[in-house]
Design a protein that fits this description.
homodimer; about 210 residues; alpha/beta; Rossmann fold; seven-stranded mixed sheet; three-stranded antiparallel sheet; DNA-binding
DNA sequence: CTTTGTGAACAGATTCACAGCG
DNA sequence: CGCTGTGAATCTGTTCACAAAG
């Protein structure tokens, strides 16, 4: 029984559970239990059950979870019952790699618009999308019903473009530029800083952080 | 005064602090205080001071932190006093985007080898690197002194390639494939699942997770 | 008998608030 | 004074352990 909000750490794990359940479905498993989910997801069974308990009661005691049913619940809670409409902003190497990333389409994300500032690219079509000018962002974003923006522009332009995204009514931004974006309340930003990730790995290569 | 180990949450923030300090250095600020760092890093001053306290005492009371000195300390702790030697494994769209990502070189990471399984790519040179066969992974990785691997192969191949990386003596892996890798103790993996990140954003677009 | 769902215990991270030092 | 460094207080997340349910 539950009325509270879902803890952020739990939200972070929901996509992993969904992925695991889709794998189980592909293996023709009709039912799965918390121990099996935990193993496939890289966590423990108590964590799995506690996480699900924030969303409701989906299991059958003595049996486990109906895979199809649980997928339906997680998809609903993640807002993935329809495809989410995504714009890629910045069509450099990273932006173009992301545009054609097969994992997006399969996991509820449809790229509906691609933007760049470079006049040489604007109007050209790549992988089925015509590159739009960033100056047309507001108009195109509204027309295409963009819900999520993937920001893959140079760090120096990121804040300025983020401001335009917000002005265009977009409230969810995944930012690949290594800068902290300032956005109004109600806009959610997730930071993806590849170099920072590698630096974290580098820390662990060290003789566990001996001082000077 | 400090002998304990650094909490994982603190380690995650160290690259952000380092980036902020380099920005401050570029702005010709000789000294910075915890309030300013916090603002630039998107956290609060108490958090900044507590984080640094796990590494030692670098500040001057009444003044703040010497920017150059603090950069030196963080770089040392992150193991970035020399460039880290990185291999890109999987030269598809994402792998090739990462290979030429300018943020790597500037932030302590040098790509020293690039691998792929596709015979059409092996032996060809792109952006100054000749693509090596994944079958030569162990030999090339040892010869080039690879310390960190960026795994950008299809999900189906990820575990198999990860096993080879481990066999080649690599103990730090950044995995872009949406699968949980199983690796022996002592090997650190960081997971970068782009679709999962977008799904987390999707959760927040929802009427904050109302049930069925 | 098996496995869920969950209070209670525990562990870890963040924030407070202030003593200590330049 | 001003700002750091840090114990203590608080808050959040994880794990335990078991009653409840099929």
């Amino acid at each position: 029984m539950n009325t509270q909000s879902v803890p952020p750490t739990t939200v972070q794990r929901l996509p992993v559970y969904l992925r695991v359940l889709v794998q189980a479905q592909a293996m023709r498993m009709p039912v799965i239990n918390s121990v099996q989910i935990a193993e496939m997801a890289g966590t423990n069974a108590a964590q799995v059950r506690k996480d699900f308990s924030y969303l409701g009661e989906f299991g059958t005691r003595g049996i486990g979870y109906d895979v199809d049913l649980l997928i339906a619940h997680l998809s609903k809670r993640l807002g993935l019952t329809q495809q989410r409409r995504v714009a890629i902003v910045g069509y450099g190497r990273l932006g173009s790699a992301l545009q054609s990333y097969p994992g997006f389409q399969d996991r509820g994300m449809t790229v509906v618009a691609v933007f760049d500032a470079d006049p040489d690219k604007i109007g050209k079509t790549f992988d089925g999308h015509t590159i739009e000018a960033i100056s047309d962002l507001e108009e195109v974003a509204r027309r295409e019903g963009v819900e999520i923006a993937v920001l893959a522009v140079p760090a120096t332009a990121a804040q300025e473009v983020a401001d335009r995204l917000v002005a265009a009514g977009i409230t969810a931004i995944m930012n690949f530029a290594p800068v902290r974006l300032s956005v109004p309340d109600g806009v959610v930003v997730r930071q993806a800083d590849m170099a920072a990730e590698l630096q974290i790995l580098s820390f662990h290569l060290n003789p566990e952080g001996k001082p000077a």
